[in-house]
């Protein structure tokens, strides 16, 4: 399966980081790229349950593909959401259903740093995306 351009950019950027501190800094920078959600979008209806931090997810369908926007109250989580969104940008529901999330974070060199709670939270975000796209 071919990767979206933003996913290639993420892979290149994270591959250039020699260690976790640089990756963590890069994650924070990617988190700052997230398009801000409005107050009304940061609603209970858009909140993803299963995350320790507060995470909101908004989905819009454009030309047969899903576009997601997300935000969190935690900086590191915003970064993880940004690289997740880079990976799923423009995927159709079928490709979204087949996405291997642990493999993606492993490719980025971030898998070892994902605590079980963060991993569960990101899985909850992906599950919510699949529900919305289904």
TrEMBL record:
Domain of life: Bacteria
Pfam families: SufE
Domain Fe-S metabolism associated stretches: 12-131
Alphabetical list of InterPro entries matching this protein: Fe-S_metab-assoc_dom
Coiled coil spans: none
SUPFAM superfamilies in alphabetical order: SufE/NifU
Record PANTHER family: SUFE-LIKE PROTEIN 2, CHLOROPLASTIC (PTHR43597:SF5), SULFUR ACCEPTOR PROTEIN CSDE (PTHR43597)
Family: Belongs to the SufE family.
Protein's UniProt name: Fe-S metabolism protein SufE
Source organism of the structure: Aquipseudomonas alcaligenes (Pseudomonas alcaligenes)
């Amino acid at each position: 399966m071919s990767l979206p351009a933003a996913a290639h950019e993420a892979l290149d950027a994270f591959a250039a980081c020699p260690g976790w501190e640089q990756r963590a800094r890069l994650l924070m920078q990617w988190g700052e790229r997230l398009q801000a959600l409005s107050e009304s979008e940061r609603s209970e209806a858009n909140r993803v349950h299963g995350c320790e931090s507060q995470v909101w997810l908004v989905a819009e369908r454009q030309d047969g593909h899903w576009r997601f926007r997300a935000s969190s109250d935690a900086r590191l989580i915003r970064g993880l959401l940004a690289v997740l969104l880079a990976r799923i940008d423009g995927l159709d529901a079928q490709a979204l259903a087949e996405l291997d999330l642990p493999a993606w974070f492993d490719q980025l060199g971030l898998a070892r740093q994902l605590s079980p709670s963060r991993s569960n939270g990101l899985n909850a975000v992906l599950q919510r995306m699949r529900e919305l796209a289904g």
